[in-house]
C-alpha cells in the first residue's frame, strides 16, 4: 500500500491552493531563473555552478598527476606546481566539497522532506547563490591573473610574507563563500524549526534532514572563525598589523589554531550530509526501516558538537605542548565512535534485508567501504607517534581523499542517482549507471590506496620531483585517476541524455517512503497541492509494519502533486 492509503500521510484539511506547473515549466526565460525564489531552481543553479568548479578543480588534479608520472620535474616549474596544487585544493575544498550536498540536494529536498512549500527565507536563498557566484569569480580572477601558491590552507608566513598579492583576493573569495554558507545554514535551521508539516515531530524527521540540520549548525558557528582568520591575513598583509609576524610580537601558530578550529568542523560540513544521503538509500534498497534511528540521530548531533574540540590533532608537530596533544588525541578517538555507529547501523539495516542492487545502492555500498577505510586511517593520524611519522606525507593525502572524495563525492553521485527521477521527471539508463558506480569504486581505490604505501614509506606531499623508488606507486595512482575521471564523466553524459531521451518517471519510481515521493516528478512550484499531515515515523519498510512486499503494493494515486 502507499503511505497515503496506509494512513501515515494524509492531506491537511482545507481546500487545495492552486499552483502553476512544475518548476521546470512554470516560468520561462533566463531572467526567470536568475530571479527565482523557488528552492528547486536555486538548487539547480548551484548544481550548474558546482559543475563548473568541479571541472576547474579536476583540471588541477590532471596536471598534478601528469607531473608526477615521472620522478623528474619535467612538466612544470616548482612555482607552477605550487600554484597548481593550490588551485586544485582551493577550488575543490571551498567551492565544491563544502557546498556540494547541502546547496544542491539539500536545497532541493529539505522543504520536500518536511512537507514545506519552500525554505523559510527564499530571497536569502537566492542571495546565497549570488554570493557564491561572486566569490567564485574573485577566485578565478586570482588564479588566472597570477595564481596562489600557499596551498588551500593559506598558512602564515607563506600568505603574509612570501606569496604574491593575489593570495588576498583568494582569501576574500573564501570569506565571501563563507557568508554564502552562513546564509544557507541559517535558512535550513529556520526551515526545520518553523515549517515542518503537521505531525512531523523531531523524531519523525528523515535522517537526511537531521544531517542537514547538524551541518547547518556547524556552518553558522564555525564559518565566522574562518572569516576572522582570513581577515587577519588581509590586515597583516595589506595594512601591516602585527598579528602573525613574530618579529613584531605576533604568533604564527595563532593562524593554525583559528584555521583548524573551523576547518576540522568543516570536514563534517562535507561528510555529515553524505551520512544522511547514504541512510536514505540504504533503507530504501534494503526494504527495511533504518536500524537504530534514534542512535543515528544522536550520532549526528554528537559529531556536530565534538567536531569543535579536535582541531589540535592537525598540530601535533607544530610546537603545542605534549599534554595538549594528548587531550586532542583522546578527543580524536572519541569522535570516531559516532561514525562507527553509523557504519554498524547501516550494516545491520542491510542484514536480512530484501536488497536490490540499483545504481544508488551500489554507490552507497561503495561509500561505506571507502569511508570505513578512510575512518580507520584517521585513527592512525589521531595517534601521536604515527601522526608525527606521516605528517605532510602522501598518507595524509590518501586519508583526506578517502573521506572527502571517496565519501562525499561518492555520496553526491549516489544521491543524484537516487533523486534524479524526482528532480527531472526522467529515468536514466540503469545499466550505465551501475557500471559507473562500480568503476568509481575501483578507480578511486586504484588512485589513492598506493598513496598510503608511499606516505608510510616517507614520500612527502607537495613535491614535483621525487626519488625514483616511488615512481611505480605514482604511475599506479595516475592510471587509477584515468578510471576515476571516466567514472565522474560518464554520469554527466547519461544524465544529460536522460533529459532528452529518458523514459518518464513516476512519482515514486523506487517505491520509497518519505514526503518527497508523495508529490509529482518534477514537483510543482509549491511542492504540494495540499500540505500533508504526517501520522507515523519514517522508513516503515518492514513487512510486519507495512503489509505486502513493495512489488505487491497498490499504485500511488497522487498524480499532479496532490496528497
TrEMBL record:
Its main location: membrane. GO terms for cellular component: membrane. It is found in: Membrane. It comes from Teichococcus aestuarii. Belongs to the heme-copper respiratory oxidase family. The chain crosses the membrane at residues 43-66, 91-114, 126-146, 166-195, 207-234, 254-278, 290-310, 322-341, 362-386, 398-420, 432-452, 472-495. One of its GO terms (molecular function) is heme binding. Residues 544-556 have a biased composition (Basic and acidic residues). Coiled coil: none annotated. PANTHER family: CYTOCHROME C OXIDASE SUBUNIT 1. One of its GO terms (biological process) is respiratory electron transport chain. It is a multi-pass membrane protein. It holds the Pfam family COX1. This is Cytochrome c oxidase subunit I. Residues 544-563 are annotated as: Disordered. Keywords: Electron transport, Heme, Iron, Membrane, Metal-binding, Respiratory chain, Transmembrane, Transmembrane helix, Transport. Residues 33-535 form the Cytochrome oxidase subunit I profile domain.
Amino acid at each position: 500500500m502507499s503511505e497515503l492509503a496506509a494512513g501515515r500521510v494524509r492531506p491537511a484539511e482545507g481546500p487545495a491552493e492552486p499552483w502553476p506547473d512544475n518548476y521546470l515549466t512554470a516560468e520561462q526565460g533566463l531572467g526567470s531563473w536568475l530571479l527565482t525564489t523557488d528552492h528547486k531552481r536555486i538548487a539547480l543553479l548551484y548544481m550548474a555552478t558546482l559543475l563548473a568548479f568541479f571541472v576547474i578543480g579536476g583540471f588541477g588534479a590532471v596536471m598534478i598527476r601528469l607531473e608526477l608520472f615521472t620522478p623528474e620535474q619535467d612538466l612544470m616549474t616548482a612555482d607552477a606546481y605550487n600554484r597548481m596544487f593550490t588551485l586544485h585544493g582551493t577550488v575543490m575544498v571551498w567551492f565544491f566539497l563544502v557546498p556540494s550536498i547541502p546547496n544542491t540536494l539539500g536545497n532541493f529536498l529539505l522543504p520536500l522532506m518536511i512537507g514545506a512549500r519552500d525554505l523559510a527565507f527564499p530571497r536569502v536563498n537566492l542571495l546565497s547563490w549570488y554570493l557564491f557566484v561572486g566569490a567564485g569569480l574573485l577566485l578565478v580572477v586570482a588564479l588566472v591573473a597570477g595564481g596562489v601558491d600557499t596551498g588551500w590552507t593559506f598558512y602564515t608566513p607563506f600568505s603574509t610574507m612570501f606569496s604574491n598579492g593575489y593570495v588576498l583576493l583568494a582569501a576574500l573569495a573564501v570569506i565571501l563563500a563563507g557568508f554564502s554558507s552562513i546564509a544557507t545554514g541559517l535558512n535550513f535551521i529556520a526551515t526545520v524549526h518553523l515549517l515542518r508539516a503537521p505531525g512531523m515531530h523531531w523524531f519523525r524527521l528523515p535522517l537526511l534532514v537531521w544531517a542537514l540540520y547538524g551541518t547547518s549548525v556547524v556552518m553558522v558557528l564555525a564559518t565566522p572563525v574562518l572569516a576572522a582568520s582570513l581577515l587577519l591575513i588581509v590586515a597583516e598583509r595589506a595594512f601591516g598589523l602585527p598579528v602573525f609576524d613574530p618579529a613584531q610580537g605576533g604568533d604564527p601558530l595563532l593562524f593554525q589554531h583559528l584555521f583548524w578550529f573551523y576547518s576540522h568542523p568543516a570536514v563534517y560540513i562535507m561528510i555529515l550530509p553524505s551520512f544522511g544521503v547514504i541512510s536514505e538509500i540504504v533503507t530504501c534498497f534494503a526494504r527495511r526501516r533504518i536500524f537504530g534511528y534514534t542512535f543515528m540521530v544522536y550520532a549526528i548531533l554528537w559529531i556536530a558538537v565534538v567536531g569543535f574540540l579536535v582541531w589540535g590533532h592537525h598540530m601535533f608537530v607544530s610546537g603545542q605542548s605534549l599534554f595538549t596533544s594528548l587531550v586532542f588525541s583522546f578527543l580524536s578517538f572519541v569522535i570516531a565512535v559516532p561514525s562507527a555507529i553509523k557504519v554498524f547501523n547501516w550494516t545491520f539495516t542491510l542484514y536480512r534485508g530484501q536488497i536490490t542492487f540499483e545504481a544508488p545502492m551500489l554507490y552507497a555500498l561503495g561509500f561505506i567501504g571507502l569511508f570505513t577505510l578512510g575512518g580507520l586511517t584517521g585513527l592512525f593520524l589521531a595517534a601521536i607517534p604515527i601522526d608525527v611519522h606521516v605528517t605532510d606525507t602522501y598518507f595524509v593525502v590518501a586519508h583526506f581523499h578517502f573521506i572527502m572524495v571517496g565519501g562525499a563525492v561518492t555520496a553526491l553521485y549516489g544521491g543524484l542517482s537516487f533523486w534524479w527521477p524526482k528532480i527531472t521527471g526522467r529515468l536514466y539508463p540503469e545499466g550505465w549507471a551501475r557500471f559507473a558506480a562500480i568503476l568509481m569504486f575501483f578507480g578511486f581505490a586504484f588512485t589513492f590506496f598506493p598513496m598510503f604505501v608511499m606516505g608510510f614509506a616517507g614520500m612527502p606531499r607537495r613535491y614535483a620531483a621525487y626519488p625514483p623508488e616511488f615512481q611505480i606507486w605514482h604511475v599506479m595512482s595516475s592510471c587509477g585517476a584515468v578510471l576515476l575521471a571516466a567514472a565522474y564523466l560518464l554520469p554527466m553524459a547519461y544524465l544529460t541524455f536522460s533529459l532528452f531521451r529518458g523514459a518518464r518517471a513516476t512519482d515514486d519510481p523506487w517505491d520509497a517512503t518519505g514526503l518527497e515521493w508523495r508529490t509529482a516528478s518534477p514537483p510543482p512550484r509549491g511542492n504540494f497541492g495540499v500540505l500533508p499531515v504526517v501520522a507515523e515515523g519514517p522508513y516503515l519498510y518492514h513487512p510486519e509494519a507495512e503489509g505486502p512486499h513493495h512489488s505487491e503494493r497498490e499504485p500511488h494515486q497522487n498524480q499532479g502533486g496532490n496528497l
